[in-house]
Design a protein that fits this description.
Elements lengths: L1 H8 L3 H9 L3 H8 L5 H13 L3 E6 L7 H21 L5 E5 L11 H18 L4 E3 L7 H14 L4 E5 L5 H8 L5 E5 L14 H17 L3 E5 L3 H13 L8 E5 L4 H9 L3 E8 L4 H10 L1 H13 L2
Parallel strand pairs: 1-2, 1-8, 2-3, 3-4, 4-5, 5-6, 6-7, 7-8
Helix pairs in contact: 1-12, 5-6, 6-7, 8-9, 9-10, 12-13
Length: about 300
């Protein structure tokens, strides 16, 4: 399978240099990451919201090695909140945050990440929006869930992400499927060992459906993170069986992937949120997008071969 190979490459400095230097890379990266600065991303936000879509915004960057870099990441999100306030789009765009970017892996990282994320969550709430904590590799999840629980004491709308390929996730879903919770379910995009995660696609798909049923039958607000047409149809059926109205759950898909489906679901009255990333440190995010779906890798390879 190519996925694990690509994920291994995402951690390679040599591969980072080679891919970053390739002439065609920028045009392909732009498909998934449509800007490097807040100013560049503003027209995208305006365009998508004008078409009836909502967004979750991700400032990319995970290779944080100093507290100063973590503070800079915090400030980048605070700048984003300011721009959303200026645009009066706070109710249409939330934010997704990886705690690794806020210093989680540093010494004293749990407390540092919590201290850095709290002002962002506070600022988001002040303009009528919220934050979702992205899931990363399994070794970080206990810390992420603890920070999520702490933030929800003051900001109960704070969301989190769970990953279907992990064995633990069904238990996590039962705990999280409570009134007021916001939970995004994804398949998972990190290289995880067989001791903690399903390795085969059919196993992951089955787990996704089991977990989605738990969320739909619970009292929280499920966010369906998938581009898979079959899983989208299953999600709609599970929502119908659970008696959910269209505004009691939502779909989330990545910017640049199945854009026509974004618009179709929105036109049908579904809440459709586009995960939109921006920033200069795009490499890790980009490589996981390639690993998630063979068609993405094909797109990159085809662009490389046909360039010029």
């Amino acid at each position: 399978m190519l996925g694990p190979v690509i994920l291994a490459a995402s951690r390679s400095d040599r591969m980072r240099r080679l891919i970053s230097a390739a002439p065609v890379t920028k045009q392909v990266v732009d498909r998934f990451i449509p800007g490097e600065t807040v100013d560049e991303i503003v027209p995208i936000v305006q365009e998508l919201t004008a078409r009836g879509l909502e967004l979750t915004m991700d400032v990319v960057g995970e290779d944080i090695t100093t507290p100063e870099q973590a503070a800079a990441a915090r400030d980048a999100y605070l700048l984003l909140v300011d721009r959303l306030k200026e645009l009066e789009l706070g109710t249409r765009a939330e934010m997704s945050i990886k705690l690794s970017m806020f210093g989680q892996a540093l010494e004293g990282g749990h407390e540092l990440a919590l201290a850095n994320v709290r002002p962002v969550v506070e600022a988001a709430a002040a303009i009528g929006t919220t934050v979702t904590l992205d899931a990363e590799d399994h070794t970080t999840l206990d810390s992420m869930f603890a920070i999520h629980e702490e933030l929800r004491k003051d900001f109960p709308q704070t969301g989190c992400v769970i990953q279907a390929y992990l064995f633990r996730t069904e238990s996590d879903a039962r705990r999280l499927a409570e009134a007021g919770s916001r939970v995004r379910l994804v398949k998972g995009a990190y290289k995880e060992p067989a001791e903690v995660a399903y390795q085969q696609k059919h196993e992951i798909d089955k787990a996704y459906v089991r977990i989605l049923r738990i969320l739909m039958e619970g009292s929280g607000y499920p966010m369906v993170g998938s581009h898979d047409p079959r899983l989208i149809s299953i999600a709609q059926e599970l929502a119908r069986r659970a008696g959910r109205k269209l505004d009691e759950y939502e779909f989330q898909m990545l910017y640049g992937i199945r854009s026509d489906e974004h618009l179709r679901l929105a036109a049908e009255g579904h809440r459709m949120r586009v995960y939109t990333a921006y920033g200069t440190d795009w490499y890790g995010y980009f490589m996981r997008r390639l690993a998630e779906k063979p068609a993405n890798l094909l797109f990159f390879a085809r662009s490389t071969l046909t360039k010029g």
